Amino acid sequence: MKQRTIITQVSRINLVEEDGAIIELSFVDASVSNQDNSKILSLAEKEIQEYMKGKRKTFSIPIRYVGSKFQMNVWKAMLEIPYGEVRSYREVAEMIHNPKSCRAVGNACNKNPIAILIPCHRVIASNHKLGGYGCGPDCKVRLHEIENIKL
Predict the structure, then answer these.
(1) Would you place residue 33 in the very low, low, confident or very high pLDDT band (cuts 50, 70, 90)?
(2) What is the three-class DSSP state of 107?
(3) Which residues pair with 124 in a beta bridge?
(4) Which of 1, 69, 121, 126 could form a disulfide with 88 if both were Cys (CB 3.0 to 4.6 A apart)?
């Protein structure tokens, strides 16, 4: 397992790579600093920095995630939300054919191991409020600004 911490205009981000795929992207505080090297970490840093500058809309970074069957269905559905668009927790629940699972969708978003690459920031409340986000609402707002998302 290798890790690299990158600094972006939104937050300090820690990337974890294992066996040729990103398995974690998390927001971290200033005390965390990892600088391992690998082709995947370099690619991830490059693509995330391009995304943060508004120059990238999709990622080619290989990812691998593990969770419950429900969580994995939610994360897979989030990968289908296009750049610059949002879906409500209810809409994601409908995407996975479980329309009464809005709250559980929110919990799965909260457990997303690969923020940004699995775009949980594109999931909002039905009333068009932001809902929660791992690094706080300001971070979610900044990601929406990058993607020109208007609520």
Answers:
(1) confident
(2) helix
(3) 88
(4) 126
Residue 63 DSSP symbol? B
Strands (E) located in 59-130: 87-88, 123-124
Whether residue 109 lies in the annotated active site = no
CA proximity to 48, closest of 19, 79, 5, 81 = 5
26-44 per-residue burial string, b: 16 or more CB within 10 A, e: under 16: bbeeeeeeeeeeeebbebb
- The angle subtended at Cα 60 by Cα 57 and Cα 63, nearest 5°, is 115
User: Rounded to two decimals, what is the model's pTM?
Assistant: 0.91
Residue from 102, 109, 120, 139 carrying the catalytic annotation: 120
- Per DSSP, what are the bridge partners of residue 21? 18
For residue 51, give the amino acid letter.
Y
Radius of gyration of the chain measured on its C-alpha atoms = 15
